[in-house]
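Saturday, quiet lab. Running sequence design on the structure tokens for the scaffold JK sent over.
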């Protein structure tokens, strides 16, 4: 008869041990993460000096079998100064206007040695991190558009430009809103490819901008008492491409760079109505002063002639038969 070998308790314990090790093994060895950008809305609040407050509202779908606490945004402004009021909230709560589930985030700037590429490292300030789902990240920082060459003269107007971040995914409906001080002329769109900028884009004559807005962009202008807004929309943002957004504004909204060789940054043609009225009032005041001086001299001359005639007992008829006040104008 063949001999049957039966497994003992050792084989059973070995099988159980292998199963426990497989379950309790370090999760990093089999963890997977897959995030996708769903949308990005950016708002730039620009003051007259060219300094801007940038707010990113990044819609991100996070997938994976582990909770996540970090994320990175590449290609931001080299002089970015992050603010400490950033947060992340579930997208459904953001749509409902609820902040109950909002979690603070810490934003740090990471620069390379050549300072050509700058990234924002985002850390979720929660011990557990974020589980899979759809979230809205709100990140804000300050930058100086004038110092980085993003404010240039464009004929009688001023051209403003700003390049968006390089995101790892292509996404639909990229929106950027420029908010500038109110001025008589509304902001308008331009084609950004001809701007003279601190990047690899070609330059036209003296930084002027040529062309019109590409067909891939849509725009909407909103006027206000204190600020004007222009919202630009691109229907699709390619993967890894930082979109260059650009507008034209009135020089009374954002001051143009100073003219080479000195002089006022605002040319005479750009003076405000108040300045023109003040200049006109000055000329009127000078004309009134000259008129009064001539009148007083004529009146004094008439008085002196009358006194001398009285002393000599002579009568000097006036050349113009009119009252003394009017003769003072002669």
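Result came back. Writing it out in full:
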């Amino acid at each position: 008869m063949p001999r049957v070998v039966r497994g003992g308790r050792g084989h059973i314990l070995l099988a159980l041990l292998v199963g426990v090790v497989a379950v309790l093994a370090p999760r990093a060895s089999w963890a997977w993460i897959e995030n996708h950008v769903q949308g990005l809305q950016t708002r730039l609040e620009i003051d007259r000096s060219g300094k801007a407050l940038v707010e990113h509202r990044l819609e991100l779908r996070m997938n994976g079998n582990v909770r996540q606490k970090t994320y990175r945004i590449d290609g931001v402004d080299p002089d970015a100064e992050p603010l400490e009021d950033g947060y992340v909230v579930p997208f459904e709560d953001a749509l409902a206007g609820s902040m109950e589930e909002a979690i603070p985030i810490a934003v740090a700037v990471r620069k390379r040695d050549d300072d050509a590429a700058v990234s924002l490292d985002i850390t979720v300030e929660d011990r557990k991190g974020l589980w899979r789902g759809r979230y809205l990240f709100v990140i804000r920082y300050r930058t100086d558009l004038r110092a980085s060459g993003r404010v240039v003269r464009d004929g009688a107007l001023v051209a403003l430009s700003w390049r968006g971040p390089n995101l790892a995914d292509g996404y639909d409906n990229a929106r950027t809103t420029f908010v500038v001080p109110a001025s008589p002329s509304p902001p308008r769109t331009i084609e950004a490819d001809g701007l003279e900028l601190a990047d690899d884009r070609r330059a036209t004559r003296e930084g002027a901008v040529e062309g019109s807005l590409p067909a891939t962009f849509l725009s909407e202008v909103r006027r206000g008492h204190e600020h004007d807004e222009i919202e630009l929309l691109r229907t699709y943002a390619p993967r890894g491409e930082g979109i260059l957004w650009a507008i034209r504004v009135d020089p009374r909204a954002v001051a143009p760079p100073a003219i080479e060789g000195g002089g006022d940054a605002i040319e005479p043609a750009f003076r405000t109505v108040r300045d023109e009225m003040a200049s006109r009032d000055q000329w009127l005041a000078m004309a009134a002063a000259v008129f009064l001086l001539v009148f007083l001299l004529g009146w004094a001359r008439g008085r002196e002639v009358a006194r001398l005639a009285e002393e000599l007992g002579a009568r000097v008829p006036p050349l113009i038969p009119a009252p003394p006040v009017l003769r003072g104008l002669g």
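Notes for JK: Residues 196-213, 263-274 have pLDDT under 50 and may be disordered. The radius of gyration is 37 Å. Ask whether to fix the surface positions before the next round.
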